[in-house]
Amino acid sequence: MADGEPLAHTHAMPLPDVPLAAVELIKSFEGIPDGDPSTVNIDAYLCPAGVWTIGWGHALVDRGAQLKGAANRPRARALYPGGITRAQAQLLLQADLIPRCASVLSLVKAPLDDGALGALVAFVFNVGSANFAASTLLRRLNAGDRAGAADQFLAWDKARVDGVLKALAGLTRRRKAERAMFLGQDWRAAGAVGVSRSRGVLPGPLPVPESPESPESPEVPEVPEVPEVPEAPEAHDAPDQAPTKARPPAAKKLAAKKGGVKAVAAKPAPPLPAAVKPRARTTTPKARPPAPPAKRRAPRTAR
Fold first, then answer.
1. CB of 59 closer than 8 Å to CB of 50
2. HSE on the CB side for 162, CA within 13 Å?
3. For a Cys staple, 44 with which of 3, 54, 143, 217, CB 3.0–4.6 Å?
4. What local confidence, expressed as pLDDT, does residue 161 receive?
5. In this predicted structure, which of 14-28, 165-179, 288-302 has the lowest mean pLDDT?
6. Nearby residues of 24 by Cβ (< 8 Å), 6 or more positions away
7. How far, in Å, CA of 153 to CA of 144, rounded?
8. Which has more pLDDT, 266 or 194?
9. What is the rounded distance in angstroms from the CA atom of residue 273 to the CA atom of residue 155?
10. In whole numbers, what is the pLDDT of the chain averaged over residues?
11. pLDDT over threshold 70, residue 136
12. Which long-range contacts (CB under 8 A, 24 or more apart) does 23-27 make?
């Protein structure tokens, strides 16, 4: 770096605000049921997923875990004994959207405009960050397939009712609204938001959609074929030798009978005796006797 050149400082970008259109979309489909209409304020209610909720989809947490089940009604009321006001419900919703927005920005690698960011935050608010992280929607978006990612919103419109997985009209409308917002279109028209009760569309909590990435319809990756191992080449005999055929066991027995030889199992050879060391001589050899003197012949006499 040259002398006098200013140092470059990098600052982390602050978390952007969730677009107001996304907040309105969430309010339209979450609704704000009152668990006890007899009171002035808004009280907790049990959502279709069995979680105690208050305001616009704010799940009650007790000792680090979501409070579930009808048996926990007293505990749910104890957490908010006097209920909450509508303004307080708004604050709870805004606080809940902050971690969802951070999750979207950490997972998405493609550029996002306000419409796409708002649609994804609303989507994650409903299905959860873990489902979004494992979704085909995210994979296609990060791969640059924006149109394919938009169509994936529509796959998340099924939930289990009485143990049966089926598409629900409320979830279908919500997914269409999110898709339209993602593409910069009129999300209210796409989701039929604002339709009067006379047409049968009522706001209120809906079951949590089931992931289309479940074992019932998974995307199975292609498994590469394992190459076959070539067989070892057979050994060939020398050219000047004819190949010998192995004689079957029956033929061997017949040949042994013809030759008069009975096949007997070979016995092991007996061990060789240990070498005997010659005994040393203990007596002195006797002297050889002297040879007898030679006899002289008698002289011959004349006849």
1. no
2. 0
3. 54
4. 81
5. 288-302
6. none
7. 16
8. 194
9. 93
10. 79
11. yes
12. 23/93, 23/94, 23/97, 25/118, 25/119, 25/122, 25/174, 25/177, 25/178, 25/181, 25/187, 25/191, 25/193, 26/56, 26/57, 26/93, 26/97, 26/122, 26/125, 27/56, 27/93
Coil, helix or strand for 59? strand
Choose the catalytic residue: 47, 101, 178, 210.
47
Q: Is 101 a catalytic residue?
A: no
* pLDDT per residue as tens digits for the range 73-112: 999 999 999 999 999 999 999 999 999 999 999 999 999 9
End-to-end CA distance of the chain: 159
User: Higher confidence at residue 195 or residue 154?
Assistant: 154
Cα 228 from chain centre: 27
- The domains of the chain are located at 20-194
The CA distance from 158 to 288, in Å, is 131
Q: Is 231 known to be catalytic?
A: no
What burial letters (b/e) apply to 267-303, b meaning 16+ CB within 10 Å?
A: eeeeeeeeeeeeeeeeeeeeeeeeeeeeeeeeeeeee
218 pLDDT higher than 50: no
Q: What SS3 string covers 6-55?
A: CCCCCCCCCCCCCCHHHHHHHHHHHCCCCCCCCCCCECCEECCCCEEEEC
CATH of domain 20-194: 1.10.530.40
